[in-house]
Amino acid sequence: EVQVVQSGAEVKKAGESLKISCQWSGDIYTSYLIAWVRQMPDKGLEWMGIIYPSDSDTRYGPSFQGQVTISVDKSISTAFLQWSSLKASDTGIYYCATRPPTRTHFNVWGRGSLVTVSS
Amino acid sequence: QSALTQPASVSGSPGQSITISCAGGSSDFGDYKYVSWYQQHPGKAPKLIISEVDYRPSGISYRFSGSKSGNTAFLTISGLQSEDEADYYCCSFTDDSFYVFGTGTRVTVL
Q1: C-alpha dist (Å) from residue A64 to A105, B1, B7
Q2: CA angle A9, A117, A44 (to 5 degrees)
Q3: Torsion angle of alpha carbons A84, A20, A11, A85, nearest 10°?
């Protein structure tokens, strides 16, 4: 059974950099994809982007292109979401989720990483 | 890419059926089958309850069902129970190969 474990909560200041992680279990990298989803305080879900661990092919949502970087390290079964310069508006919970091959839904979700950015 | 439109809230009494709509443009829904639904309880991660418009994953109650008509998808919860009180989100894989979530619907059990 596929499982994902996300890194813990982070408290940062505006302008700082940050990299959060999502480690999967099971041999999924050859076919599954890993997506990142943002949820700002008391708001809905927003799709940020998705990466194919097998070849690192990445696609970003229009609102997030150029704002974040999604990457993967297959050797440690981990996907990453990073910011080079955080803003207060980046405050929120960030979920990673797996997408099975040839499907379009997200079947396994991490518990989320809370990111708090002070101005 | 605008979010798909869902009603902000829907309520019902225990045992009743409720339906949540998810409306978008023709390009939002892409292929007919690329719609999924997620349930999110307060403080918890989202959970897949419906995939490919009307497929119920293993372990999901038969009381949840999905459908689609034109550019609107629907989630129906029958036999409403207190544990169904949560936020619900639709999600579509679009013609442009992006994902877009709905605005979310809060379900209240009266």
Answers
A1: 20, 11, 26
A2: 75
A3: 10
Nearest to A47 among B40, B57, B99 (CB): B99
A96 HSE (CA, 13 A, CB side): 28
Q: What are phi and psi of B38, to 5 degrees?
A: -130, 140
Phi-psi region of A102 (alpha: psi -120 to 50; beta: other; left: phi over 0): left
Pinpoint the alpha helices (H) of B16-92: 26-29
Mean pLDDT on B33-49: 96
Alpha carbons A73 and A80: distance in angstroms, whole number: 8
Name the closest residue on chain A to residue B34, using Cα atoms: A104
Residue B99 structure tokens? 């994902």
Q: List strands edge to edge, sheet with A69-73.
A: A3-6, A18-25, A78-83, A69-73
Interface residues of B toward A, Cβ cutoff 8 Å, are 1, 3, 33-34, 36, 38, 40, 45-48, 51-52, 57, 89, 91, 93, 97-104
Evaluate if residue A30 carries a pLDDT over 90: no
CA distance A13 to chain B (A): 24
Rounded to whole angstroms, the Cα distance separating B39 from A49 reads 20
Return the amino acid letter for B57. P
Smallest CA–CA separation between A3 and chain B, in Å? 13
Least confident of A96-110, B20-34, B38-52: B20-34
Q: Please answer whether residues B53 and B67 qualify as being in contact, where contact means their C-beta atoms are separated by less than 8 angstroms.
A: yes
